[in-house]
Design goal:
Length: about 230
């Protein structure tokens, strides 16, 4: 289980997170919702180690990882799919996927057996360069690359951004399947409530670096959530 405990994060003098706390449990999706600029991505940067926190603790499976660098967190099973996908445009699809081997011992540097079942389009495009793929295909590649690392915590930053509806549905099905296996915790950042509602067991709504609503999906008032996302 992931526990974010009273975490603050600054960019210089600017406060991005104000003593926020959430949990993410194995076999569940925790969704962080909010408008642009409220601190959602900063939360993920704190969890993954992409930016140091100013206060609080981040605990992963009982270990305080607050001061560990990003690559050590990746070796502990934390995988991040960043906003904008960040695939390597000049590498082939297969080469992009192989970059996930970096955090694995040599004996485990193989693709997951079901990777191409989850993303069949990637199997037919192994020799195409990442930069030649559509936005939706690049998003699938970015998620598949994260799965190559055999994560126990999968962190996704707005996977629906700029993606055509048919691929959004495919990505939603993959996230739900991964959750249902009970082998990983998933933290999903989204702007769109409908997508999050169908996937999440726990929802956190952020505003100006704070969490203003937090709870189980069925316990939250949907109209209240939508109002906070539209203001």
């Amino acid at each position: 289980m992931l526990e974010v405990k009273q975490v603050s994060l600054h960019y210089g003098a600017a406060i991005a997170l104000r003593k926020v706390s959430i949990q993410a449990k194995q076999g569940e999706v925790t969704c962080i919702l909010g408008r642009n600029g409220v601190g959602k991505t900063s939360m993920l940067r704190a969890i993954t180690g992409a930016h140091p926190i100013s206060g609080g603790e981040i605990v992963w499976n009982g270990e305080n990882i607050s001061r560990l660098p990003l690559y050590d967190r990746a070796r502990r099973g934390i995988a991040w799919v960043p906003q904008g996908r960040d695939v390597f445009p000049l590498l082939t699809v297969r080469e992009n996927l192989e970059t996930g081997f970096a955090v694995l011992p040599r004996g485990k540097r193989t693709f997951p057996d079901d990777m191409y079942d989850l993303f069949p389009i990637l199997k037919t495009m192994q020799r195409r360069r990442g930069g030649d793929l559509s936005g939706g295909q690049q998003q699938q590649l970015a998620i598949a690359r994260a799965l190559v690392t055999r994560p126990k915590l999968l962190v996704l930053d707005e996977p629906t951004e700029g993606i055509q509806p048919s691929i959004i549905k495919d990505i939603g099905r993959v996230i739900d399947l991964l959750r249902s296996r009970g082998e990983m915790a998933i933290v999903l950042v989204e702007q769109y409530f409908d997508f999050a509602r169908d996937l999440a067991q726990t929802i956190a709504v952020m505003d100006r670096g704070d969490i203003v609503l937090y709870g189980r999906r069925e316990d939250l008032d949907e109209d209240d959530v939508r109002r906070r996302l539209s203001v």
